[in-house]
Amino acid sequence: MYSGIQLFLIHAGLFFSALLFALVVNSVFMRFFRTLGIREQPEGMVRWSSTAKPAFGGIGFFIIFLGSFAVYGALFPKHSDPLQPGLLGLLASTGLGFLMGLADDAYNTRPLLKFATQVMCALILILSGTSIHILGVPWADHLLTIIWVVGMMNSINMLDNMDAITTVTSLGILACGLLTFLMNGPRMSIDAVLIIGVMAALTGFLFYNWNPSRMYMGDTGSQFLGVFLAYVGIRCFWNGAGITGEPEAWRQAAMALVVFLLPIADTTSVTINRIARGTSPFVGGKDHTTHHLSYAGLSDAQVALTFAGLGAVAVLLTFVELKFIPDWTDLHSMLYVGYAVVVFLFLYGTTKRTRRPE
User: Fold this and answer.
1) pLDDT tens digits for 177-200?
2) What is the tally of structural domains in the chain?
3) What's the pLDDT at 45?
4) What distances in angstroms separate CA 86 from CA 91, 127, 246, one per listed residue?
5) Do residues 139 and 256 lie in contact, with contact meaning Cβ atoms separated by under 8 Å?
6) What are residue 55's DSSP bridge partners?
7) Residue 66 domain flag
8) Domain for residue 358, yes or no?
9) Which of 60, 68, 37, 95 is nearest to 228 (CA)?
10) Whose CA is closest to 196, among 232, 240, 150?
11) Is residue 311 within 8 Å of residue 167, measured between CB atoms?
């Protein structure tokens, strides 16, 4: 339908149009809704920044996400089928995550309700045909999918603890996902268009979220992103295939680990340390890997650049895997998993070498 150059121009035009829209809509929000998303914090809640800022970045994400659906139908009418179960499930699960995050930003919803909603998002994806297929046992794959979706929604939420961290991390993950479509195809996939749209929304938001930030994405943004990133992980990595097109369990697991390493490493480090101290992993605190990098002497902007750099390495490793590794071997698994272990030990080590200032 379109040549390679035409597809490139369409994708580039979509990205920059969505970027411009994101900048405009966030500017409008900043001008007219300076208190949106700001609420009285419950007693004992700990935040890195003591300054209250509006939390409506996620609203822009979701608007552009929905707009990308509409744009895809106009650009690729012969490939557009809005009634696909997988797409309906993605819309329903991301919409539910968005609404739950919106309610949490406004009313501080109960943790149990939040968890139940996250499980429901995972079940919607499974029932609509989007689930991990790696273990070969349906109930085990479905359980792994629930753990993956719920874990990613909480990990992205927990990672949103310092200016720009979740934004640059999500951009890196989505860039890896986009590479799989551009290099392995199909390049006219609606998933590729959705990834481009959300990347543009994040880039436009980053203008306001870079340190010192003027707005937060809030739970509205982190919960939507958690579902969407989990979906991208399933489609592009857990269920992805190598150059030969054949599924390879170790390749799929290793790539999912490398691409999603930063949220996994941060959540794992925080969970281990809090359990060791006898505190709940689900209570906020200034003990994340990002915070400890700051205690080690990095500025908030330098911490964000560090995470952006690690995200760029993941993009490079994804490119190498897609371009140069037709046959996945045990050596490749050792190298990719070894890289993930080294980064995890580095980030976890910072939480042991540095201490929070009194």
Assistant:
1) 999 999 987 777 899 999 999 999
2) 1
3) 45
4) 9, 9, 22
5) no
6) 216
7) yes
8) no
9) 95
10) 232
11) no
Residue 1 lies in a domain: no
Tell me whether residue 104 is in a domain: yes
Element (H, E) at 267: helix 261-277
Helix, strand, coil percentages, rounded to 5, for the chain: 70, 0, 30
Going from the C-alpha of 30 to that of each of 17, 33, 55, 216, the distances in angstroms are: 20, 6, 10, 11
Is 68 within 8 Å of 91 (Cβ atoms)? no
How many other C-beta atoms can be found within 10 angstroms of the C-beta atom of residue 9? 12
Contacts of 63 (CB under 8 A, 6+ apart): 25
- pLDDT, tens digit (0-9, with 9 covering 90-100), for 221-255: 999 999 999 999 999 999 986 655 667 899 999 99
* Helices then strands, each counted (H, E), the chain: 13, 0
The better pLDDT of the pair 255, 7 is held by: 255
pLDDT exceeds cutoff 90 at 130: yes
Structure tokens at 138: 């349906």
Inter-helix orientation angle 330-353/261-277, to 10° = 50
Half-sphere exposure of 335 (CA within 13 A, CB side): 12
* Dist CA 353 CA 358 (whole Å): 16
**Tokens at residue 194, please?**
């959705």
Torsion, Cα 327 328 331 334, to 10 degrees, reads 160
The amino acid occupying position 254 is A
Q: Work out whether the CA dihedral 58, 60, 66, 72 comes out positive or negative.
A: negative
Residues 6+ apart with CB under 8 A from 2: 10, 188
Q: Which H or E run contains 293?
A: helix 289-295
| Domain of 83, in residue numbers | 8-35+51-353
